[in-house]
């Protein structure tokens, strides 16, 4: 294996913590304990990176299979050059700025149909979804937002409030305002993977929205991840979005697409989630990939919604869309196009998914292999029939992978899912290295 050099010598990571007890430890504590135990206790101390690789202070090379934010790869020279040039020209926003921010807004809007013509720049995914929610509330004058269970939209007050997987937790840091209604629909990747009737999820979601309207409190909007990142990378059931968007709009509400996780190439299209379903939202929140690692977020909407918002709500961001962010964002978009990274995501993703499925045929601990493009999910279970999660085994697998030079981490509500979302420039050779390493660990 010349790609990564010799496998890293054993790092002697501590063994996985004893079984988790949901009743005793809340999820955040568990996750924190897990992270401290496995990554902070004896972490590889990463100091640089290139493409899909990371290098620690001792010069050891790792394959980064989890960094969805480093869309064009770590330390891309074109991105670095654009940033450094702009840092020497003009660094900050001002009322009279001209150039970078306008050009960047136009570039982003050009990836979407003409109706979505207005761009707000923020600094993160949480800010983007927060603003998207405010746009829906303020422009409709309605306090209720419908969201999905098991989703994650961010940590700010509004985005956390609609992140029901966290807000359902009684110990959650954020509290959940009464204006959020959760849709118990399309939430279960287990259900979807077991072939449950997909239409039922859309019908359940639509029923929640209809019910609110019947109660005289029609929803201001509906927000969902257009691809279930939080569940480990699961596509929404076919026609889900068209049915739910139609219903929310029929009652005068706004359709919000959270494309923070998958927008801009991860699934092989600019906006795979809703493009795949042939529908257009009213508001799109993006971040992560577009910044290639820098704090950049954006909300794209129709001018008419933005104008209504401006009369009701407030928006100002000191650093959102700064000249440096803008040139970085433009360089990232250019690299995605020039290096055909969307196509790479499709091809390498399909290859890797096939390899993981093969692996699943041989190793019963693999429950489901799901996802698309370069957002794949691998679920480890103790029993394929009951799909009983295998969190301790997943933690141990990640430890062993790290010894073999692969950075991976357990995720999901049960900490038994690997979310495989490497930089979009990952090569097939690296994907094979990962699959080979996993094969070795499972064997
Ligand atoms: N929305 C989705 C779907 C996400 O996955 C995330 C982050 O993981 C966010 C929003 C929040 O983004 P950020 O961490 O940049 O605030």
Automatic annotation (TrEMBL):
Q: Which GO terms describe its molecular function?
A: isomerase activity; pyridoxal phosphate binding; transaminase activity
Q: Which superkingdom?
A: Bacteria
For whether the record's keyword set contains Isomerase, the answer is yes
Listed A to Z, the keywords are: Isomerase, Pyridoxal phosphate
Q: Which family does it belong to?
A: Belongs to the class-III pyridoxal-phosphate-dependent aminotransferase family.
Q: Could you identify this protein by its name?
A: Isoleucine 2-epimerase
Q: Which organism is it from?
A: Microbacterium lemovicicum
Note the residue range shown relative to the complete protein.
514 to 956 of 959
């Amino acid at each position: 294996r010349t790609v990564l050099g010799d496998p890293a010598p054993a790092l002697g990571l501590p063994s996985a913590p004893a079984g988790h007890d949901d009743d005793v430890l809340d999820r955040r504590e568990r996750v924190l304990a897990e992270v401290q135990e496995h990554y902070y206790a004896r972490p590889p101390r990463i100091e640089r990176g290139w493409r899909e690789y990371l290098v620690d202070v001792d010069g050891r090379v790792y394959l980064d299979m989890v960094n969805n934010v480093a869309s064009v790869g770590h330390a891309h020279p074109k991105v670095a050059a654009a940033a450094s040039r702009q840092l020497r020209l003009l660094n900050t926003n001002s009322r009279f700025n001209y150039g970078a921010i306008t050009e960047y807004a136009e570039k982003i809007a050009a990836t979407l149909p003409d109706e979505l013509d207005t761009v707000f720049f923020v600094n993160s995914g949480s800010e983007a979804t927060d603003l998207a929610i405010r746009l829906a509330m303020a422009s409709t004058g309605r306090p209720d937002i419908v969201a999905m269970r098991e989703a994650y939209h961010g940590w700010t007050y509004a985005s956390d409030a609609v992140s029901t997987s966290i807000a359902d937790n009684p110990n959650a840091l954020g509290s959940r305002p009464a204006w959020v209604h959760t849709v118990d629909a399309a939430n279960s990747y287990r259900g979807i993977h077991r072939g449950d009737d997909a239409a039922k999820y859309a019908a359940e979601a639509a029923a929640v929205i209809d019910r609110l309207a019947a109660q005289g409190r029609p929803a201001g909007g509906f927000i969902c991840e257009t691809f279930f990142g939080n569940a480990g990378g699961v596509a929404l059931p076919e026609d889900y979005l068209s049915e739910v968007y139609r219903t929310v709009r029929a009652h005068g509400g706004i359709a919000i697409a959270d494309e923070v996780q998958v927008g801009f190439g991860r699934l092989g299209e600019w906006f795979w989630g809703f493009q795949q379903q042939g529908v257009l939202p009213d508001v799109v929140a993006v971040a992560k990939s577009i910044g290639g690692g820098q704090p950049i977020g954006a909300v794209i909407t129709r001018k008419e919604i933005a104008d209504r918002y401006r009369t009701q709500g407030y928006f100002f961001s000191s650093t959102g869309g700064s000249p440096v962010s803008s040139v970085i964002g433009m360089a990232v978009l250019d690299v995605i196009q020039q290096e055909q990274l969307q196509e790479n995501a499709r091809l390498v993703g399909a290859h890797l998914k096939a390899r993981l499925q093969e692996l699943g045929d041989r190793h019963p601990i693999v429950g489901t292999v799901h996802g698309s493009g370069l957002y794949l999910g691998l679920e480890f279970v103790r029993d394929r029939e009951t799909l009983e999660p295998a969190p301790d085994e997943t933690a141990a697998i990640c430890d062993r992978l790290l010894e073999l030079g692969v950075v991976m981490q357990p995720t999901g509500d049960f900490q038994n899912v690997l979310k495989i979302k490497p930089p979009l420039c990952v090569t097939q050779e690296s994907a094979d290295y990962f699959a080979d390493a996993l094969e070795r660990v499972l064997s």
